[in-house]
Amino acid sequence: MSIIPKLATSLNRRDEVPNQELAKEIVRSEDTAAVSELVENLKNKNKGIRYDCIKTLYEVGYQKPNLIADHLPAFLALLENKDNRLQWGAMTALGCIAREKPADVFDSLGRIVEAAEKGSVITRDHCVNILISLSALDTYADKTFPLLLEQLMGSPTNQLPMYAENALPIITAGNKDRFIEVLAGRLDEIEKESKRKRVEKVIAKSGKI
Q: Is 185 helix (H, G, I), strand (E, B) or coil?
């Protein structure tokens, strides 16, 4: 039985609750067929259905990433989609998969970073999260941490405090000096005092590591 009738658009709903409830149902039953149907309908002619499908997929990914991990190629393909909602939704899904299949996501970093550079703020947000996830793993940190620093150097000042705070858990005695240097070098660019103080707090915490 198709799960498309359960999506918000099919129910003439403008909120995301039906999609979230469907995601919970898919997770509870580990319904891989439903996941496959959602992926297939990312190309549905109805834009609302497409949006509901990507929403439901990354909601599943938040709870049980292994259920969407095999569909990594489909999410990568969406990074080149001109529809911003599908693009950042795909990046969100890839962020979930990074915990489940780090090697596959690492191998696709070129496409991921390129999409972040060209995409919206939300697309970049999730790219940064992917780089943080991979940098937490010794296998990839040597390659991914420099890419993370590049994002910190080039990010909008509005996003910098959040990126710095999110990265703090992966900061070590071995990488903290460069991290602090990058953040300190951008302090003068941050006009809003509250945001500057957040970055200064991260710098202070990093210095104690």
A: coil
* pLDDT at position 159: 92
Mean pLDDT value of segment 116-138: 92
Q: Is residue 167 part of a domain?
A: yes
Mean pLDDT, range 91-99, rounded to an integer: 94
Residue 57, in any domain of the structure? no
Query: What is the domain range of residue 207?
Result: 155-209
Token readout for 42 is 């990312």
- For residue 13, count CB atoms less than 10 angstroms from its CB and return exposed for 0-12, middle for 13-18, buried for 19 or more: middle
Burial (0-12, 13-18, 19+ Cβ within 10 Å), 14: exposed
Q: How far apart are alpha carbons 200 and 117 in whole angstroms?
A: 26
Query: How many structural domains is the chain composed of?
Result: 1
Helices vs. strands in the chain: H and E counts, helices first: 12, 0
Q: Answer yes or no: is 172 within a domain.
A: yes
Query: Does residue 96 form part of some domain?
Result: no
Expressed in angstroms, the distance from the first to the final Cα of the chain is 54
Identify whether the C-beta of residue 66 lies closer than 8 Å to the C-beta of residue 97.
Answer: no
Angle between helices 121-135 and 109-118 (to 10 degrees): 150
Q: Which residues contact 154 (CB under 8 A, 6 or more apart)?
A: none
